[in-house]
Amino acid sequence: MHMALDEVLLERVAAGFRRPTLRVWEWTEPALVIGSHQSVLNEVDLVAARELGFVVTRRMSGGGTMLCEPGRTITYSIYLPESVVAGISFRKSYAVLDDWAVRAFVELGIPASYREINDIISPRGKIAGAAQARRRGFVLHHTTVAHTMDVELLPRLIRIGRPPIGGTGVRSADKSVSPLSWFTSLSCPEVARNLERYFTNEFHAHPSDITPEELDAGEDLVAAKYSRPAWINRLP
Predict the structure, then answer these.
(1) Who's near 123: CB < 8 A, 6+ residues apart?
(2) Mean per-residue pLDDT for 47-69?
(3) pLDDT at 161
(4) In which band, very low, low, confident or very high, does the pLDDT at 166 lie, cut at 50, 70 and 90?
(5) 73 and 181 in contact (C-beta within 8 Å)?
(6) What's the rounded Cα separation, in Å, for the pair 220 and 216?
(7) What are the phi and psi torsion angles at 173 (to 5°)?
(8) Quick one: pLDDT at residue 172?
């Protein structure tokens, strides 16, 4: 449903039915979220995923596989006109669109900085990873933040460094992870609220709700696309 809502809200902003929007959201089940140009067989250890209770889903944006867990992971999505990053290279646009979050983490005492192309990092490793999709002059930029994580899970679930099984596709990079909980005593919901507060103050944002029409459109997309094996297991 979250993958579908990202597509729906991007289209709503592009069509002028919604102003540029930040959505901060959380997961209700453990998930491995692969990029649009990745192969499930090459990326995910499906046996380990089943044993550990992780579902596999595919997002509309590129990038590598993200490990997400309820109460331990924060994701934020931004839907905005491409004109906001006009004149900025694709590589640099990631840092521009995540700069506010880096500053929000620093305000909380977290030693955060940015590493091209798409990582928020600490001196001990990766805190968050971003991905983008661009449609009809509009941008979906979403960033997944590890608040708490058993870093030993990564090599069990994601086939980083293992030989490909078949097909092609972008492989996830081998990067050390340093969850926010290593640097702050704030809970996952408290960090999420601080991100919302910082963004609201920085950009004079106003709260809004997902409309019933947007939820209905999301449910339609789940049924037609995002829950279907043909989408999840498609070859890049």
Answers:
(1) 111
(2) 95
(3) 73
(4) low
(5) no
(6) 6
(7) -80, 150
(8) 64
Structural domains of the chain, ranges and CATH numbers in brackets: 2-205 (3.30.930.10)
- List, edge to edge, every strand of the sheet that includes 66-68: 55-58, 31-34, 66-68
The verdict on whether omega for the bond into residue 117 sits within 30 degrees of 0, i.e. cis, is: yes
The string of pLDDT tens digits covering residues 174-194 is 678 999 999 999 999 999 999
CA distance 33 to 48: 15
pLDDT, tens only, 72-121: 999 999 999 999 999 999 999 999 999 999 999 999 999 999 999 999 99
Q: What is the residue-wise DSSP string for the chain?
A: -HHHHHHHHHHHHHTTSS-SEEEEE--SS-EEEE-TT--HHHHB-HHHHHHHT-EEEE-SS-S--EEE-TTTEEEEEEEEEGGGGTTS-HHHHHHHHHHHHHHHHHHTT---EEETTTEEEETTEEEEEEEEEEETTEEEEEEEEESS--TTHHHHHB-TTSPP-SS--PPPP---B--GGGT----HHHHHHHHHHHHHHHHT-------HHHHHHHHHHIIIIIT-HHHHT---
